[in-house]
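go over whats below:
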Amino acid sequence: MKKEKVYLQFFRYSGKPVQAKKEIPYEIRLQARLNLDAICFNYNRAKLEDAINKALETDDIKTFKNLSEEYKQYIWE
């Protein structure tokens, strides 16, 4: 994976001094992305499970089959 770089350019001006922002380490960015992926995965899975349960309660077989096909992607673990 190609490393992302941040380039900062400084200009002289008459005003308060400014501090440059530091680059966020790769490990922290990766961990944040993995956490967000896990949260989204669990949320979408729970939402789909609720929809499947609702379809079962209302005896809607067509919706149940469509939702169960989508749910197969979440149970590959």
Q: What stands out?
A: The radius of gyration is 23 Å. Residues 44-77 form one domain. The mean pLDDT is 86.
